[in-house]
Amino acid sequence: MSPDKWEQIKEMANKNFEVLSNEVFELSGEQGEGTCEELVFNGPLGKIKLEMVVKPLVVGKKTHYSKRMGTGAKVDYITSETEKVRTFFAYKWDEAGEKWVEMDSSHFE
């Protein structure tokens, strides 16, 4: 999803629905640094959470291992300095289970 489309979705949610929170988190992990912007609002289906995750593109990985018994392998991910990957997730709040459930993207088409 493009940054412009994400901004349009946020603007529409702010204009049409009651926004409960809009936060940006820093991510860190074995596949590189990144950011996650999270928008929670009350929509026609109930409580909805939208996430836009932006991470560097993984261009390769290097595995370090030893032939000794009992030692594990370590994986180093090689990421691009310039290219980013944007991933969009949508969740619906499940009242019965009291947890976020990912919405199937095939319903959006």
List keywords for this structure.
1 helix; 13% helix; 5 strands; 109 residues; mainly beta; 5-stranded antiparallel sheet
Short recap of the structure:
With 109 residues, this protein is mainly beta. The chain has one helix and five strands; from the N terminus they run H-E-E-E-E-E. Strand 4 and strand 5 (99-102) form a beta hairpin.
Structure characterization notes:
With 109 residues, the protein is mainly beta. It has a 5-stranded antiparallel beta sheet with strand order 1-2-3-4-5, covered by helices on one side. The protein contains 1 helix and 5 strands; from the N terminus they run αβββββ. The model has no long low-confidence stretch (mean pLDDT 86). 13% of the residues lie in helices and 59% in strands. The longest helix has 14 residues. It has one domain.
Percentage of β-strand residues: over 45%
Biggest sheet strand order reads 1-2-3-4-5
The SSE string, one letter per element, is HEEEEE
Round the Cα radius of gyration to an integer and report it.
18 Å
- The end-to-end span amounts to 15 Å
Overall spatial form: elongated
Low-confidence segments, given as residue ranges, are none
Give me the secondary-structure category.
mainly beta
Largest sheet: 5 strands, antiparallel
Portion of residues in helices? 10-25%
SS elements, strand count:
5
How many domains, in number, for the residues?
1
Look at the structure and give the mean pLDDT: 86
